[in-house]
Input
Amino acid sequence: MTELEPLRNTFIQEIIDADREAGRHGGRVHTRFPPEPNGYLHIGHARAICVDFGLAMLNGGLCNLRFDDTNPSKEGTEYVEAIKEDVRWLGFDWGDREYYASDYFEYLYQCAIKLIKKGKAYVCDLSPEEIREYRGTLTEPGRESPYRNRSVEENLDLFQRMRAGEFPDGSRTLRAKIDMASPNLNMRDPVIYRIQRVRHHRTGDEWCIYPMYDFAHPLSDAIEGITHSLCSLEFEDHRPLYEWFLRELEIEDPPQQIEFARLEITHVVTSKRVLRRLVEEGHVSGWDDPRMPTLAGLRRRGYTPKSIRTFVARAGVSKTNATIDIALLEHCVREDLNATAPRVMAVLNPLRVVITNYPEDLVEEFPVENNPEDPAAGHRMVPFSRVIYIERDDFMEDPPKNYFRLAPGREVRLKGAYYIKCEEVVKDPETGEIVELRCTYDPESRGGTTPDGRKVRGTLHWVSAAHAVEAEVRLYDHLFKTADPLEGGDIIANLNPDSLRVLTGCLLEPSVRQAKVGDRFQFLRHGYFCVDRDSTPERLVFNRTVSLKDTWAKLQKA
Ligand code: ATP
Ligand code: MG
Output
């Protein structure tokens, strides 16, 4: 994965190098990617995945996949499976190191007991509202809970009875005993266990108390021998708490947390909560709607895993938040597909053309190159006959000066085939709409050049009517019309009403007939397309991944 090499130039690599030099963690590099299985992974997670797995790879280390499944009411197996599929698709392998925080519930419980015995945790009977109220604010210190000074014996007894299911949900919590006056709110006696009778997707009804994420996370890292616990910036304020747990529990060689900025992209939302809302309210067709920034959506849209890795590496990883232009993501997929996608001719908005001097039953086949960027890709034979279709946009009855395509009396080249000249325009007598062009061809121009060296300014793509494959083509634009989807505060109002345009009756050259779901092509002059899973044996459906116009490349040149 040479595209990940730029990760060597990050501040995280500098820390790893310094650690190795100082002999920390015995020179090991062991990271983990810790998703909560409460939604699908999005492009933001791709940064975390590439950084966690990528830095482990670049440093000869290991990376675990760990599900942080401490909140059973929001989590489920559907998400676990989808996350695994997405990480694998992105090109990463966790070997046999697939772990779950829920596997550590007994260990975590024992850690809690240890804290109680040290006088560092207590059972609190305040309600969730009261706890919030006692917590204070950024400007006011918190107040101590009246239950804070219970004896170790009483705490042990109550905590064991919490586990045994003697108390109703929400009636008691276990809290760390730290400092209600700390300027860091996370240190004001945070809750570490709550009572919640919710079936867990892995442990079933075994537990009615669940550890809080902030307690489970650093200790899960510790059990797994994680050396560098990489996470996004919002956990910076939690680090003192994590370090407190690790210190009080006397963990040897504790993991070192390093925070980096979350990936934000223009026109894109990277919050599972908002993405779920889009799905649940039906603004998109599902988590894998090709307009969604989920990895499942990007995959369906036709993005390649390599293009996403390239994007993440080029966008870089830093300590400060910065929004990346979506044009860079689009540039990366274009660059990859330009090198790899076979070219085909596809007429999205067909106009019938009859070549009046071409024999009725003749079919000729012309070789057309599969990929000019890749000579090894060879060519395919494309059939040509008397009736063809061209793009409606490639004809103008009354063209402006700088229009080099077809017009009455004008001659153009049909790619790889012949020169044709427009002799007559046939219109619907009622509507005036152009329904057909009648053209002649020059038999001397076979293959697209003439012996007399006569030049034409335009080359059009075309499809033989008798051989065409009909398809539906879905064109996409940004899901949000504003660069900042939160602009003005109402994300739904910022949805782009033109984010999906469906074209039916598109006509494609017959080489695509055997295409399978996920196959990618460049449609000449239209962009890159990918076969959608909605395709049937009768009708192919294509998603446009991205158009050919590269605004990023232009920005770089300017
Ligand atoms: P969301 O805010 O979308 O719900 P999350 O952080 O709650 O995301 P997790 O499943 O907890 O989602 O994330 C797993 C890992 O991915 C965490 O380590 C988190 O730091 C990281 N991550 C999540 N979103 C981003 C992002 N936009 N950029 C970089 N890393 C991210
Ligand atoms: Mg999270």
The pocket of adenosine-5'-triphosphate (ligand 1) is lined by residues 34-36, 44-45, 47-48, 231-232, 262-263, 270-273 (CB under 6 Å). The chain has a mean pLDDT of 96. The first strand starts at residue 30 and ends at 33.
